[in-house]
Fold these 3 entries.
Entry 1:
Amino acid sequence: MFSTLGLFSSVACPERASCTRPNCLFSHSQNLPLPRPLGLPQVRPSQPVASSSSASPPARAAANKPKDSLIPTKRPAVSPVTGAFTSPEPPRKFQKVGSAQRPSALPTASYTESGAPILRVNAAQSLVAVPVRQTMLKTLYDHFIVLYHKIIPANPSIAADHALKQEEEMYKKSTKLTYRNAVIQCVAALKRRAVPTSVNDPTVGTEDEIIAKAEAQKKLASLHLSRESLEHLVHSVEDLQKWGYFVEIPETPGGHMPSMEGKIVKCDRCVQYYVVKPVDNPKECVHHWGKPYTTRAGGEKVRTYTCCLRPVADGGGCSHGPHVFYESKVEDLHARHPFSSLQPTEPNNTCLDVAAVDCEMIYTTGGMRVARVSVVDGSGKEVLDEIIRMDEGVLVVDYNTRFSGITEENHATATLDLAGVRQALKSFVNSDTILIGHALDNDLKTLRIIHHRCIDTALLFPHKAGPPYRRALRELVREKLNKVIQTGGATQGHSSLEDASATLDLVRWFIMNKSKSGIQVDS
């Protein structure tokens, strides 16, 4: 044996008392600390080790590294007992590597040139093979096309949209094994549906939507609005005046000038002055039939028309028609046809406690006049729906069919004038009846009725900008009732009976949703 040189005599033996070497190279002195284990970096096989001849000097190598690589990394900790490396992270088998929830893989809207929907989902997240789901989606779409063939011309994308929603519903409800059968059963249910003629029909929508609509409609229909349940919602006379209602009958004579023919007035459409006369040039007025609204373009506010999306600053118009005029002063309206109040309650009367009212108006030589009035009671039952002919000497200038729904053909069937309709109203409404409507002041003005017991849905659901701004009835019905109304377009216009029923349902919705706050409801 060679003699030791004593190179490790100052290094403590790692095994200390358990060392069995007869001539140990290390020191067994108790005053020396244990040596620290060496943490040698591992070199990845895919990264070749640079040779010493091509290695850069340390300073240059540090300068050539990106800034992110110069940030010191967290070194592994060393156990003071065993001397082994420890990691701040838990072992891999105890780490969360995924969610326990089912992958969603829900579709997004995408369509072919023919309008058929295309499934856009993450195949890795879908429990059902995407080709299978696409086939089932196409099957649903084909059956929705057949079911909706009467309403597709006015709603081109409704079949594709409902097919996507229906497939999503089936996917959420089923498993990988039951998905195909669930879709097949849904197709069978589609075949049993009655063909809808309107988007508001109960057979329009997915299976879940139809069930939800049926339950909501059942709740609304079962709620009968009585005078006692609505008394707290009747607006005060001060509120009515603030919103433009007429609360008093003018002292001036009424009905002495039913027509303004031959007078100079300002056109309500093009804001030019003209002489009122029967229509001889139906295209002399160039105007926009839509209302202007404010949008933002390039950071600036721009006023744009809803009818053609043209800026107001461009001037001109997008439509042609006759000049028409509109009057808003109570004295002027009273001169065309006199105002009056509803009769007080009489003994043994059969008048309604609650009635919803809506009117459709047309332009005449006597200004804007009522051409149709519709009334429903507190249960939603139709009470009156009458076309009204004009007073003697008053001629129709524009039927305004786009909004009124009145045409020359159906207006020719009218038998009652305004006085006759007002007489008919007296048989089921009086001064104690609570009248419901949307922007009800306009209906009362055109009916020439002064009434103080009113509930206006424009006031129940106020515009965020405050008066005089009002939310549109169509917007409120879509938001609160999940229904679409006023879909007649330029040829059919609005339906006063549909609008009257919609305002009644809005009040029902208001009562049902406010009942949790302590409002008593009679059903």
Entry 2:
Amino acid sequence: MSTDPEKQPTKVSPISSVDQDESTLANDELYELSDSVLNRKLKLINDAIDEIGFTPYHLKLFFLNGMGYWTDTQLTYLESSVRTFVNYQFGYTYPVSNEMLAGGLLFGALFWGFSADLIGRRLAFNITLLLSAIFTILTGVMNNMASYCIFVFLSCFAAGGNLVLDTCIFLEYLPHKDQWLLTFFAFFWGIGQTIAVALAYAFLPNNSCESADNCPSHLNRGWRYVYYTNGSIVLAMAILRLTVIRLKETPKFLVSNNRDEEAVEILQKVAIKYNRPCSLTLEDLQAIGKVEINDDYRKHIDIAGTLKLMYHHVKILFSNRKMARSTTLVFVSWLLLGISYPLYSSFLPTYLATRGANISAPDVHGVYRDNLISNTVSMGGPLIAGALLFFFPWLGRRGVLFIGGVMSMGFLFGYTQIKTRPQNVALSALSFASMYIYYSALYAYTPEVFPSVARATGNAIAIACTRVMTCIVPVIAYYSDTSSSVPIWICGAFVGVNGCLALLFPYEPSKNRVV
């Protein structure tokens, strides 16, 4: 512990915190909560987290939470890469497995997200990857489409809560000056999809049927190998989560539910372990009073009481005009994103096939090679977003969102004019990278503008918005004229609109602390 008084941060006493007027708080925290006691307690928690600073514990959280992003996109690209060969073997043409994937991710986001605000973040963090790994490995064993789809759904249901909770957990431990690191989580997304595509490239070309006319299981083992390998990777990451770090519940969740003693104990342990100062005491929190925002609802632990508490958390997201505007714009952004990105991915292969032989690769090896290049380049998007926030902090989250959205629109519009295979690879890679600038900033921004008492709920609904549209996109792709460039124009327009919507967001988390 540091003993130099000049190096010690100013301690906010409970009395001065209670006596502060709202204008003073508004200059420090991002938004006001209706429960002034909770608002002031969260301010003290923020003070303590800023006082402790960034530690090796945060670095472990960064990588272990990033594995959740990794798994989400890995399973998505895994299913899309093997879908054709699974359909060959089981005699299907409609992408029913893609619908089950989207449904699993949708219900997983809602289930784990809402439950995280009810019982805490720790349980989901510890078991979601483990369950997902087990179900993914078992998916490769299935011998008919019905059982295959069931396990696709279960694996994605288990993994669906990761995008909801990973940013929440990391954010609620993170000092304000380091919150820009949230944008880097999408880098793990790029790793996951690149690994999925690379494994598909390794196993599918030489271990798959060429058509549905003659596709017995013994000639079509490639998709099973892909599932076994991807599932094993997820299992290894699940074991790392359980062994490298024993996650404690986030202090902000604890104080929101009148568990002040546990919150102080966790912060003090982190400070002591890494020799950092932490002047927060239990007396500081208890002197402010009791949090009432959830208290009445938690007295009735039954189905009706749980539903009322869930509805109460949703109402918090719209508790005043400014917060309602913010929440609505964030949900609309996710909804439009859920149309544009999957629609682009679904229409692209067929669209390219109509452009001529010199646009696409002539064989399966070439297709996967080009796809691997595009997905590898996509990892640069989150790095660019993080660099923009670090070197140009005046841009803020909203500025980076605008840049990512408008750049994506330009590259997608340009994509409709490609004439050669190198142009195809280049524009595909640039489109992915620019969209990931927007994606990474939005994934970071979303949990920041929801209050901790309902953060997982808001995050769950936001991601559910994009999952709902993901369920609809395969239907559009199946019944529409995919040879037209119109869908790509629509995708570009939607991403551009999202970039402009970001300028209307009322909150800028880079300037104020989240509560």
Entry 3:
Amino acid sequence: MKRLLLLLLLCAQGLVAQVQFEAKVSKTTLGLNERLRVDFTMNGDGDNFTPPSFEGFRVVGGPSQQVSQSWVNGRSSFQKAYSYFLLPLQKGTLVLRQATVEINGQVYKTNPIKITVTNAVDLPKDPYNAPQVSANDAIHLVAEVSKANPYVNEPITVVYKLYFGNIVIKNQRSLNNPKYNDFWSQNIEIKQIVTEEGVYNGQRCNVAVLKKVVLYPQKSGKLEIEPLSIDFDLQLPTNRRDFFGRPYLVDDNKRVTAGAKTINVKPLPENGKPADFSGAVGKFNFKVTPSKTNLKNGESLDLKVAVSGTGNLKLFDIPKPVVPNSLEMYDPVHKENVSTPLSGMNGEISDTYTIITQFKGKYPIKPMSFSYFDLGSNSYKTITSPEIMVNVLDGPGAPEANDVAANTGVSKVKVSANEQFHFIALKTGLVSAKRKDFLGSGLFYTLLFAPLLIIPIVVVLRKKKEAIDGDVVGNRIRQSNKLAKKYLSEAKKQTGNKELFYIALEKSLHNFLKAKLHIETSEMSKDRIREILSDKNAQSQTINDFIQLTESCEFARYAPSSSVSIQQDYEKAVSIISELEKQLSS
């Protein structure tokens, strides 16, 4: 019996040892332009096969599956394989990591394989199957910059053009998108790529515009525009012809890069710069318009301060009006009606203030000035609005009229001699009153027991207030949500209009950063925001969510979206601002 058990055990071990699962490669050293074949083979019918991630490679073929089974001298053999064709993405030493498969309830893994990738090599070609043109000569990507020496905040355009010959482009993948550091950027939507005839290096070819972007440099000096890299799958014509004389096509791959561009940005001149200059560059008009100037006591007026024209409309602050103390002015409602074509931003931005009157009289709103740098004349220009006189027709006179008139220019309230004592009543109207004892009356008992009833109410309210005050986390959350909704109030009003909603959402995010971090709009590059928030101990995930939301605002204006996605973006913005407020306040 023992011998029989030992024999069965040895047979079982032999069966287990027979299971094989391994990875085989066509070569371990290859050029950057060569393809690698990988076969994952097993001698059992495995399930749940999981390939590796192929990090550093791009799968250009597969997976394909082959199964073979044979009988020789009464013994069966089985083999199953999964095959892939890979194209390396970079030079150096790459690792094919483990693949897994389940055979007979047991999980098996392959061994990692190191692959060395060298520079591109010359491949032997069949003269009949060889392409008529080289992929290196057939396709080129060029970045055309409108101006290489602009001023700070002067718009420049970058147009990425693809020049190609008689080839077929099957697919394209963007590998490296420029980040445009130290620039305010706006992508111009290209609804449909159009191919036209063009010339490259004196040769006629096809040309297509792939990408357009408007840039506003935010600082002076030499700034670099990062390169754009795109990977293309191509089909090149060969020397072989079909029955109708058409050339056969061969597949190829080509990566093209629009090289980095260096822009030498000039600073704005200091000579003649006005004291109130806030960074406006372009050609603008400036208007201050009241909704009305004659009104009654307690009525309100809307004062609209607007800047319109062409220039960096989103990158400077509008002047704030100065009103007399007797007028109550509320925080403005900011609106932007700005479009960004290839020539740069144009439109109008405005702040509308609600002003409420309190006393009768005349109240001047001082003239306001707006300064900008005119690119046409390369000089600073200042526009000054006229003084606005607000006339309150009725209501009580302003207190301390002499001081008010001296400080604010408000006219004194004059009272005629005949009306000085008009408020004194000259006649009396006495009414006889019957005596009634207070002691024992209803009022007496009400006043007697009222404190006893009030004491429990006061105790309950006090405990509730202490509980609320003690809830530090809850108070912080409520305060954060209140602050977020304050900044996002304008965006919420525009939820019915996609473009206006995302413009308002982007502006509210910038205003929040300006208020919390005390930075100007010109400093709001992504790297600068990330650096400052990190210094303020904000969490990296929250920072990434904030930056991702600001980036998506630009694309969402043109991408199709539903009311549901707009509401989700609004709620996401409330959550991110609330989280930042809590983290920056802790």
